[in-house]
Amino acid sequence: MSGAPTTGRIAFLDAPSGIAGDMLLGALVDAGLDLRVLEALPHALGLQGVEIQARRVTRGVLAATKVDVRVDDQAGLASLARSLHRSTPSAAAGSGAA
Fold it and tell me: 14, 66, 67, 87 - which has most CB atoms within 10 Å?
């Protein structure tokens, strides 16, 4: 570390029944996550044909950010599937990685 003070936010998620990914991403954007960082993730992860889209929505008196992960074509789907496979514990164990 450079010794410079750091600031940040920590979020604790209490989701005993699970959590919807689009709702979590929208909440993170509403809490201050830079949308440009989120939109750049598919490219940074090497996911071709995958795009992040966000828009403001209103349901009754509530407004929020709605985030969608769009997969354009079969190449995007295959790219996403490869990435998910690499991130699973069984895939890491089978690769000989420590």
Answer: 67
